[in-house]
């Protein structure tokens, strides 16, 4: 979100994408509760008001992906003229079917590495804004790096620590 708010990326999502991450978050963290997940969703919408993609549904049926339930993501990317789908789920978004639509797939780690290379100062400022958003309890830069590594951003954290 901090990358989107800073203008480094143009985040795009649909109601279906919101529903999917919300369901998965509640499965992994039932202690959060549905009202808190809804609050997160509302805050995302407020922070990046032009991110919601609508009108993509007619594209879904004509798309082919290993998991048909993921076609809505590609349809939204095509409709929004997105360059990249950011996901950890690379197996269900193989490059070949995406290429014909001018869409790439990247992991969050790959995206953040690319941003650090292209826009190092702005990317570090966005990461600092992320660090500053943790208030209860606050986190140090080292703790943020640890959290990023735990989230799978291992190449990014290695790059940050080596510069």
Automatic annotation (TrEMBL):
<dbReference type="InterPro" id="IPR058652">
    <property type="entry name" value="VapC50_C"/>
</dbReference>
<feature type="domain" description="VapC50 C-terminal">
    <location>
        <begin position="108"/>
        <end position="160"/>
    </location>
</feature>
<dbReference type="Pfam" id="PF13470">
    <property type="entry name" value="PIN_3"/>
</dbReference>
<dbReference type="InterPro" id="IPR002716">
    <property type="entry name" value="PIN_dom"/>
</dbReference>
<feature type="domain" description="PIN">
    <location>
        <begin position="10"/>
        <end position="90"/>
    </location>
</feature>
<dbReference type="Pfam" id="PF26343">
    <property type="entry name" value="VapC50_C"/>
</dbReference>
<protein>
    <recommendedName>
        <fullName>PIN domain-containing protein</fullName>
    </recommendedName>
</protein>
